[in-house]
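Changelog note: in this version the structure field was regenerated for every chain. One regenerated record is shown below for reference.
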Amino acid sequence: MIYRLPNGRQTLKTVAVLAVSTLAASYSWAQEKSQTGDNALEEIVVTGRFISQTGQSGLKSDVPLRDVPMTISSYTSDFMNAIETTRIHDLYSYMSGVAQAGATGYDLSIRGFSSTGNDRNVIMTDGLPGLAVRFGSPPTIDAERIEVVKGPAAVLYGQIQPGGFINIITKKPQEEQRTLVKLRTEGFYGSDASIGDTSGATISLDSTGPIDDQGKFLYRIVAEYENNSTFRDHGFSKSKYFVPSLTWNMSDDTTATVFAEYRDEDHALDNYLVAYDNDIKNAASLTTRYQEPDDKQPETGYVGGLTVDHSFSDNVFWRLNYRYVWHEDSAIGYESLGFRDATTLRRRDRNQKNQRTYNFLDTNLGWNTQTGSVGHRFLIGFNGGKETADFKRVNFDNGNATLDIDIYNPVYGQGIPNADRHVGDNLRLRRFDSRAVYLQDQIEFSTHWKAVAALRQESFDTHEDLYQPIYPTKTYVRTSKANGDSLSKMAGLIYQPDDTWSWYASYAESFDPPTWGRMDASGKQITSPEKGKQVEAGVKADFERMTATLSFFSIVKEDVAQDTGLDLPSGDAIWALSGKEKSDGFELEVNGNITENWQIIFAYSNVDAKVDADVNPDKVGQHLLNAPENTASVWNRFQFSDNWGVGLGVKYTSERYGSAYAGNGDESTRLLLPDYTLVDLGIYYTREGFDATLKFGNLFDETYYVGAIRNTNIVPGVPANAVLSFTKWF
């Protein structure tokens, strides 16, 4: 394993000093407690921690995180409010081992493994897949907590990347009447952006309470409207969001909650920056956009769901969780295609219309029992569902020279599309079905020793029908099918010498079903899934005013499907399960109150993620895409008085690669995104149910790049910006 500090060596050292200081403070608190007794800390009032001490996602039940033999972080609404953001992806840079890897809500990297829009389980809502929209990151207004589960987690959730996943725990109706109204305005003043040209506003509502006097029926309404410009040329972002929910307390033992969700978004179509010859120095200004001013990317989603909880007794309980999603999105405009030369970008005329549905259910029965002196908390469950996708290329023309645009001085309105705008069109109809049963046992051997063991058996079917072209008539091309199954295992052991320390070690597995249309050398569809395995060990500490987690992990992803470079007689590529990827590293996360008025969250991760085996041996040893070796962050909130507070954050991300592995074995020919350090500053005012926040993001206007898929799709980081928000509770 290689631990190195890239170009930002001094910055990372500075953040490391903060980490050491924080750990030293936590040690001194522990010493203080042992020397002066518990009463010395009784006067300290700790409120609004950034990380909760319990979570649902790790074991599908509310348990203390110290009883879970894996790394889980449960970020609270207080953390989201302190950072002052409306979108979840803005939180990633303050999470250990998590990095934004692109522009969509699904583009992120966890422990070195990146996900895409095909990885529906990388972001779940209340434990089930399917976001209402795909391109825009999920909003924070309806999030009670954001839980991050690290490592393979297929045993309870099924198909997943081995790095882990994010689970959004949504807000539920409450018995106490309360209403929040929030007005937020923001603008950009860094790079070539101007506050006057980029300002916008967001208004949010969150209202909950009882409907009847007895409190049998509770309601919650969450709504948000956004109309913002972005720092990109001619960029815009409009969003409408509405989530009503109703809880019926049928009895003391039975509760049902039904909800609906509507989300409509319209964004400027943007393929972001390009870098000729894979050299980031050739990228234009951060504000430069290569799509036409009116090119857009609209999407709409409708969601419905139901949760039922019933207790048969104090020791036997049952839960049903159901989620349905209908989603449609389009990409209408000129898409970045490739380079004509060092200063000219080729574009194509494209209109892609996608429809997806997600229909998933999870139900489980749990019971607590004893076998002699050993306690058990069993959980047996079934989950499964269906995903369908309808991908239709309305326009798909590889363009002509009139669509070309200058990389450094783009001029719009010059393109003349070809008369036949349907070249290469196709229609893909896809379906994915899964069925699984799982069994988990949380075991308590004694006061000091605990364990968790779980198994999952899942079967899946994939089906794709391909038609081409679709204009003026569609012609059937082929059908691709794959049927398979996977047995996933997880086991962990926990040692807790006292109420403070929790030492653990665990093993977990994951799987990812094969992609449609990939044939082996015999011309048969590949049916074996890609598999992930992780060994993890660590320690969790729970002091009076602070919690900390230190974990070491090693993840191997095997049977990675790879294009061999050879073709079948039909012209289809030959694929082989010859790839292997490996990620080794460690993470540290600390959260708590240094003093009564000083709150802090610190995170550091070191990830060495590389190719371990490849059909091309020259690629072995190369770094995985969008996988920084080092990330570090710290956020402080100081409360100077009952009314005034200030927040200060520092975030560091090391260099990482933004293009595919180099076939010639020379990583210097890959697109390398430089390391960066960002500083955020917040000023808070609070008084009698009224909050005001002024936040300056990227205070020193650092130029940076979030991630990249290739050298024609490089997502620039946000320049210096200002946010002003007002929140009133009624």
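Spot check on this record: Residues 59 and 68 are 7 Å apart (CA to CA). Helices lie at 9-36, 77-83, 154-157, 195-198.
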